[in-house]
Specification:
- The protein is mostly helical.
- The protein contains 21 helices and two strands.
- The chain has a two-stranded antiparallel sheet with strand order 1-2.
- A hairpin with a 2-residue loop joins strand 1 and strand 2.
- It is globular and about 60 Å long.
- It binds phenylalanine (PHE).
């Protein structure tokens, strides 16, 4: 079974495979809308500080655990300390929760790709002003789209079936190769769109300032909660994925250098995506709070409007969305592969059975997420739509618990030295001190505080 799982990364470079998993909708879709919502510059600052300290240490720990034990998450924690096997199990549940709703967004991407390819670019940029209860409300193409019942489910189903077929056939390598070529083009295109909107649109500069200049009055504990959840999500942390990657890493490859590269790549793309989306939102709305708070739909409302103002907008939009599609695909493949390999290893399923099981599970959970915006939009779980709830449950509850437990295991059970020794098999560990202090003290304390405050916030006990 080990050999089967090794096709996950195959022989392609460790950094590229891990970066393929890390860079996805989290960077392009999730980061910009969170940055817009949580105060722009202050969110960016908190995120970057967390990435180079906290994210760095956790990713080091996970990859080193994987390489040291040579196992996927459940086996790895079992090997480190039997009492902590549950961490591996919890870590494996997270991707199963993310995959369905991730694929719903993947479906949105496909719908937009289809739209641009078939020349509906302008149609997707239209915003109707309608009167609802005496107030003028803007209804975008996106609003109407997600409120329709069957279409989002169909696109979601197509997306998840594509992902399943790729995982079932084990042809990830081909996809990874394609996306390896596409990634640099995606970066160039994001920069182009960002520069274009900043230069040509009135008011975009204010958006650049909002995005880059930290406004400390906008700081709240929720800024840190959101930034940390996003960090886990974007760097594919706290769900065993990096442990699995690490288990395939050669002993002579520098973990520290690789982590730096992955981090730079991942944070760089998120940063640029924010620069592409946030100033454009300002240009269209003049920095109106409600526009900044648009949430999950932000990119899908704003970008078509930007493309609509460009010459050859449909063509550029098509190229853009096809690349986002591939970035998303490499991530959802790694999500699915993780769940499939757990089912294979722990439940003795064969690959086909495991893929079918994950597909059916995802179809059910994903459809619920999609319906949460349409037929079931009245149903809320602790004030959230289904999609937001799954997102919150995995990012803000389960991942912090897994991350906290990882810190405890590394900091106090096996001790940081076990990890730093593993890292030093391939050269000096430059940030050894930072790593040990982070893992033992700062990270666990921060995680607990954050976990408590986000729970208190959601249940409305204290507003933070
Ligand atoms: N990191 C991916 C992204 O930013 C999402 C993801 C999370 C992928 C977890 C795999 C595992 O889109």
């Amino acid at each position: 079974m080990e050999t089967k799982r090794s096709t996950f990364t195959g022989k392609i470079g460790f950094v590229l495979a891990a970066a393929g998993s890390a860079v996805g909708l989290g960077n392009i879709w999730r980061f910009p809308y969170l940055a817009a919502k949580y105060g722009g510059g202050i969110f960016l600052l908190v995120y970057i500080i967390l990435a180079v300290t906290f994210g760095f240490s956790l990713m080091m720990a996970e990859i080193a655990i994987g390489r040291k034990t040579g196992q996927s998450p459940i086996g790895a924690f079992q090997k480190l300390d039997r009492r902590f096997t549950f961490v591996g199990i919890m870590g494996s549940i997270v991707p199963a929760l993310i995959l369905p709703y991730y694929s719903v967004i993947g479906g949105w991407v496909m719908r937009y790709l289809f739209g641009f390819v078939t020349g509906q670019g302008s149609e997707m940029a239209v915003i109707d002003k309608t009167e609802v209860a005496g107030a003028l409300t803007e209804i975008s193409f996106f609003d109407r789209y997600i409120e329709s019942v069957s279409e989002p489910i169909i696109w979601f189903a197509i997306y998840i079936v594509i992902t399943s077929v790729i995982v079932l056939l084990g042809v990830q390598r081909g996809i990874e190769k394609v996306s390896k070529i596409m990634m640099p083009v995606l970066v160039v295109l994001i920069i182009f769109v960002a520069v274009y909107s900043i230069v040509t649109m009135d008011g975009a500069i204010d958006g650049v300032i909002y995005y880059l200049k930290p406004d400390f009055s906008k700081f709240s504990v929720m800024t840190v909660v959101a930034a940390m959840g996003q960090l886990f999500y974007s760097m594919s942390l706290a769900m065993g994925i990096m442990i699995t990657f690490g288990s395939y890493m050669k002993k002579d490859v520098s973990i520290e250098k690789s982590v730096r590269q992955i981090e730079l790549f991942d944070t760089g793309i998120a940063f640029l995506a924010g620069l592409m989306v946030v100033p454009a939102v300002f240009a269209f709305s003049g920095g109106d709070e409600t526009a900044l708070n648009k949430g999950a739909g932000l990119m899908f409302v704003t970008l078509p409007r930007v493309f609509d103002t460009m010459p050859y907008g449909d063509a550029i939009g098509s190229v853009f969305f096809i690349m986002v599609f591939f970035a998303a695909l490499t991530s959802s493949i790694s999500l699915m592969e993780t769940v499939v390999s757990v089912l294979q290893d722990k439940f003795g399923m064969n690959r086909k059975m495991a893929c079918i099981a994950v597909l059916i599970f995802s179809l059910v959970l994903g459809s619920i997420s999609a319906l949460g915006y349409s037929a079931w939009s009245d149903i809320k779980i602790i004030g959230m739509s289904f999609l937001d709830f799954f997102d919150f449950l995995s990012n803000n509850i389960l991942m912090p618990v897994v991350a906290f437990s990882t810190c405890v295991v590394v900091g106090y059970i096996i001790k940081p030295k076990a990890i730093t020794d593993e890292v030093e098999l391939s050269g000096k560990f430059r940030e050894k001190k930072l790593f040990s202090v982070m893992i033992r003290y700062i990270a666990p304390i921060c995680i607990v505080l954050i976990l408590i405050s986000s729970i208190l916030d959601v249940f409305g006990i204290v507003k933070i």
